[in-house]
Amino acid sequence: MTVDDTTSGAGDRGAGDGETGSGTSSGSVHPTPHHEVDHTAEPTDDPLAIRLEQLILGAERRYTAFQAARTAGVSMELASRFWRAMGFADIGQAKALTEADVLALRRLAGLVEAGLLSEPMAVQVARSTGQTTARLAEWQIDSFLEGLTEPPEPGMTRTEVTYPLVELLLPELEEFLVYVWRRQLAAATGRVVQAADDEEMVDRRLAVGFADLVGFTRLTRRLEEEELGELVESFETTCADLVAAHGGRLIKTLGDEVLYAADEGRTAAEIALRLIDAMTQDETMPALRVGIAFGTVTTRMGDVFGTTVNLASRLTSIAPKDAVLVDGAFAEELIRTGDAPQSEAEAAEAEKESEEPLPYRYGLQPMWQRPVRGLGVVEPWLLSRRA
Q1: Choosing a second label site near 317 at 20 to 30 A (CA), which of 54, 60, 163, 339?
Q2: Cβ of 107: how many Cβ atoms within 10 Å?
Q3: Does the pTM of the predicted model rise above 0.85?
Q4: Mean pLDDT per 10-residue run, the chain (387 residues)?
């Protein structure tokens, strides 16, 4: 949508990554830098692209940006903020919008008018939805549809296969997307409802873990692009499966690094050690190191922020190869829940006196205190699995 440069920008700035621990929580509006917006962007006129667009959107192009905003009963300024927040380029004066675009604007504006969402919160809804689905759509086109649209017969082009394939897949993928979203929404709502108090719903105590491939930069110089892509995909898939299987939540992947969170220390510990085991058993994978911290975490738009996140990242950077370093708060949490002994010496003495094996699952070895940039002096602990 065309935007007057004198108006406000695209709304709340996107949340930063866990490394910086920054992000906006007040929903304030920040102007969008001029260089980030393509004011000359025009929709494609390619006939096949238009046919595919109409098939996917279920409607024909009818409106300019101004006409869509007026039809929806929304100010041009607010419509532009929603449009940019969803991740779409400005479209100038072209007739590129459909009835679905008008309905989406009307729904978002209606939530604001009804008092169910504040205007900044509605922009956040648009942004979080846009960012998540944009990545999903790119992945499906690059990794999924590309393989399926290989021409089945000589002389056929990929584009000739694409339209009927999309026509068949679209309703099934749409239903599946809604199903997964509802499942994820139910799980997230359950975690919030179980929070101890209202404050904990936003600022929660979580175990946060970073897992990082060692020597990845050197690896990028040695491997071909296809090999590197396969390695990253294998790493991310393995991490995602292990995190989900053992009750954690994958926050995001960064190529050679993943960030995950768990409500309980034992869950985060189990995930970390299983990740190390999985990587060491795969000869194609470089070494892995993991850092975990426990403490208050602020969650925004599916991401996590705060000192706890930064500390986990710093611990990862100083962890030995194929090892897990944790902070003092995480060690205390494992001791409190009975998953680790206060000290190995006490555990050994108790085991001599007991006829039954002790229930400790993990061992903790204190390491030398060391200064960590931006966080002062910390005493990391080496986490291991007890026999």
Answers
A1: 339
A2: 11
A3: no
A4: 39 38 39 39 68 88 92 92 88 89 93 92 88 83 67 69 83 91 85 59 80 86 82 89 91 89 94 95 90 91 87 93 95 93 76 72 90 83 89
